[in-house]
Amino acid sequence: MIEIQPLPFAVTEHFASLAGPEKDDPIRRQFFPDPRESLHDPFALDDPLGEYLYRAAPRLVHQYKDRALLLAANTCAGYCRYCFRRVWLSAQPPVEDIQPALAYLAAHTEIREILVSGGDPLTLDNAALGDLFTGLRGARPGILLRVCTRVPITEPSRMDGETITLLANNRPLRVVVQINHPRELSVQSRVVLTACVDAGIPVHVQTVLLLGINDDPDLLAKLFSGCLDLGLSPYYLFQLDLAHGTAHFRVPLKRGLAIYRELGGLISGLGLPVYAVDLPGGGGKIRLHENVIVGEKETANGIAHIIKDDSGKEWYYPAG
Ligand code: SF4
Known about the structure:
- The protein is an alpha/beta fold.
- It has a single domain (13-318), classed as TIM Barrel (Alpha-Beta Barrel), CATH 3.20.20.70.
- It contains 10 helices and 13 strands.
- The chain has helices spanning 13-17, 28-31, 86-90, 99-107, 126-139, 151-154, 161-169, 187-198, 217-229, 253-264; strands at residues 55-57, 60-64, 67-71, 113-117, 144-149, 173-178, 203-208, 233-238, 274-279, 284-287, 293-299, 302-308, 314-318.
- A 10-stranded mixed beta sheet has the order 1-2-3-4-5-6-7-8-9-10. Strands 11-12-13 form a 3-stranded antiparallel beta sheet, with no helix packed on it.
- Helix 4 runs parallel beside helix 5 (126-139) and helix 9 (217-229) packs across helix 10 (253-264).
- The radius of gyration is 19 Å and the shape is globular.
- The two termini are 27 Å apart.
- 41% of the residues are buried.
- Iron/sulfur cluster binds at residues 76, 79-80, 83, 85, 118-120, 150.
């Protein structure tokens, strides 16, 4: 049983400076607590992605054969109100010893890529980040590191020359940065993201589709073409995960599909991310298109879309 605590409130000065004063400002809503977070959502799960289910060692999740996830940090520079690791971050978990995770990686050579996530790994200082990379490289010298972060957007000053050199020196390494709105591409963020690209670090972009924030094909086209102009690769557009307290951010799935269809006509294939969802409770990632939704069902939690995965197994995602 996981105890559910409210997600902490924290925002960086930089990210707050991008927000307008209105309550429904698309930047403000991403970090400012909303009373709707306490509403009960019958579809919400304690562990929306099944990360506890696939925990292979402390801080290490091994769900897909060739890649694993390391929860490298327990904190973020600011807390996104729609975060799918809400329960984990809210519990403010203790920092666990990384050695068993490194031993697991050394023994499992089928793992070719490690997602370094958290929390946000760039909340670690450079000494700790360097030690982490050294440990990972010691366990598996050639493993691809995928550093998942929001820091280049929320706190670009953290991405100084020393940090970028540290990342570049640990290639093969890719940065995956979460960007949800064109206004997040501030001058400062543009500078550090361009510096990463110039240092030879491939940078990919993940975006969460959020109701009232970016559920608009023109706005998304603007975001992704802005990313392309900076040399960043739009990678995933995520349908919201079923975390507690986040239902007010959920774009109905059918509407998400319509937005994505229209988006495809607005930008080149280079700028079009994959629209995907993590099947609730640990079913893994699946690309979303009309054909994966095979019907609707009245479940104990309410009406749900039936999504069929590649193996033919059915999963439920709320229809509203
Ligand atoms: S930065 Fe990532 S892990 Fe941290 S609160 Fe935002 S979505 Fe969650």
